[in-house]
Amino acid sequence: MLGGDLVGEQGMGSCGGELELMKPSSSESEADRPDTQDDPPPGSSVHEPSPKLLLQDFLDISSALNEAAGAIVDDSFTRCFKSNAPEPWNWNIYLFPLWCFGVLVRYLILFPTRVVILAMGHIIFFSSFFSVHFLLQRQQALRRKIQRFLAELLCCFYVASWTGVIKYHGPLPSLRPNQVFVANHTSMIDFIILEQVTPFAVIMQKHPGWVGVLQNFILETVGGIPFNRGEAKDREVVGEKLKNHVRGSDNNPLLIFPEGTCVNNQYSVMFKKGAFELDCAVCPIAIKYNKIFVDAFWNSKKQSFTKHLVRLMTSWAVVCDVWYLEPQIRRPDESPIDFSERVRAIICARAGLKKVPWDGYLKHSRPGPKLRERKQQSYAESILRRLEK
Amino acid sequence: MGNASSMLTQYDIEEVQDHCNNLFSQQEIVSLYERFCQLDRNAKGFISADEFLSVPEFAMNPLSQRLLKMVDGLNFKDFVAFLSAFSAKASKQQKIELIFKVYDSDCNGKVSFNDVLEVLRDLSGPFMSDEQREQVLVQVLKEAGYTRESYLLLDDFVKVFGNSDLKMEVEVPVD
């Protein structure tokens, strides 16, 4: 912290504790300063060993500068969103033609086939959805069941369109009330991969374009809660909706991505506490993608979802592991934030992610004054403390 | 390799190394270039203030606005030259010079009482009153033999820092 470092500077090579007094070398530089021992200025102490404030303490801003320069050179937040491309392997005279052949197969054979499969899936989904919608208007329960199945079916088509090789570990989620599921977030396909086997309701950021249209259908079939990241008031409303959804026995289990944004599957940003203050069991799910054929991280600032899908569809396969982990309950002495950190630790340990103490929303907005004020406060306090001595 | 839109040639690296007086090794310059390209989102050749502020660790630093004035719009060569004060090989004199430049915001070669007060204001924020800041500064200036009306020059800074070590070093991650 800024204050602590400032005091440490005064220590000049030795332990740098707060009670370090003037070292001999500093009194040498004090030789050309007027001797004020006879006339102590108010508020500062003259007896050794209490530390006296010197001009040097104020001019020495090296620790703040150091932190700033360190942040410029490398910072843990930007690392979370860096797409680390795997090493190219086609740099050789015989590997390159092989790679070219692979490109041709992927773009001219696989891609068109996959597009056809996906189109078929959409046609089946929409035709069945609308026919069931109109034909079974009176049998709500049956209609809902079929629509749920249709949503899962559409997700299967999506997974097939990227040749998804997905291994599910652990007991599949059971459909019962008073539980939410949380998972780390790498791309919107996380939802599709999980939805393929279990009809989750999901809380999601509204997207524009065709994705938004599809989102509306998802909301209709499996239920869910849309929200808008940009609206601050939304948070309370959404919090209420979360509680109501969890309590409803008829609703599909709720899937939440507490990071709030897509992270590059090597790091994990802080979880938002909303999912952890609902007084119900929290079931963690860890998702880890294998980058062997493609990096599934969706950098929403760099590419649209369509481009992201096309990239997945022109690679050989999407390989990933999904672990369903043991449900966790908040301990009586645990705050929601501590609870969220505990669950985050469980997910990160399972998926091999590094934890980072930043709020994911900083990707979209500047940090508030609180973090800076904390630094300012500790600095001010260290000065004032030494003034009083 | 991020978006290494234009790869550095050996000539480029040597030119940059020369410009920063060999304070960074060639590998460190390559790493810094990767970082530069990562921060410079649309490959304009310089990093804008907004892009610096997108690094939350930098944005929350109390001195970020002062530093922004010094680093905003720098091309890669000058970017490295700015960071060279933080190299392990940099001399204490160079570090003191950088600190002096941070204080001397109007670049007239002298640091006034108000300059020091401004920096203290940045560092302590709303947690010290203006009276407290002035009081404590007047006091330490007096003890050091200066008055409120004194102007501090670079040599004064050097004298004040005396023989103490300046821990101002940043490690450039090299893959």
Strand content of chain B: under 5%
Q: For the CA atoms, what is the radius of gyration of chain B?
A: 18 Å
Described by strand count, sense and barrel closure, the largest sheet of chain A is:
7 strands, mixed
Largest sheet of chain B: none
Q: What order do the strands of the largest sheet of chain A run in, or round the barrel if closed?
A: 1-8-7-2-5-3-4
- What is the CATH superfamily of the largest domain in chain B? EF-hand
Chain-averaged pLDDT of chain B = 88
Fold-level CATH name of the largest domain in chain B? Recoverin, domain 1
Q: How many separate domains make up the residues of chain B? A: 2
Distance from N terminus to C terminus of chain B (CA atoms, Å) equals 11 Å
Helix content of chain B: 40-55%
How would you describe what is shown here?
The complex is a heterodimer of chains A (389) and B (175). Chain A is an alpha/beta fold and 389 residues long. Chain A has a domain of 200 residues. Chain A is built from 13 helices and nine strands. In chain A, the strands form two sheets. In chain A, strands 1-8-7-2-5-3-4 form a seven-stranded mixed beta sheet, with helices on both faces. Chain A has a two-stranded parallel ribbon with strand order 6-9. The longest helix of chain A is centred in the first third of the chain and has 41 residues. Chain B is an all-alpha fold and 175 residues long. Chain B folds into two domains: 90 residues, Orthogonal Bundle (Recoverin, domain 1); 79 residues, Orthogonal Bundle (Recoverin, domain 1), CATH 1.10.238.10. Chain B is built from ten helices and no strands. At the A-B interface, helix 1, helix 2, helix 3, helix 4 and helix 5 of A face helix 2, helix 4, helix 5, helix 7 and helix 8 of B. Chain A: It is found in: Membrane. Chain A: This is Glycerol-3-phosphate acyltransferase 9-like isoform X1. Chain A: Keywords: Acyltransferase, Lipid biosynthesis, Lipid metabolism, Membrane, Phospholipid biosynthesis, Phospholipid metabolism, Transferase, Transmembrane, Transmembrane helix. Chain A: Its main location: membrane. Chain A: Pfam families: Acyltransferase (PF01553).
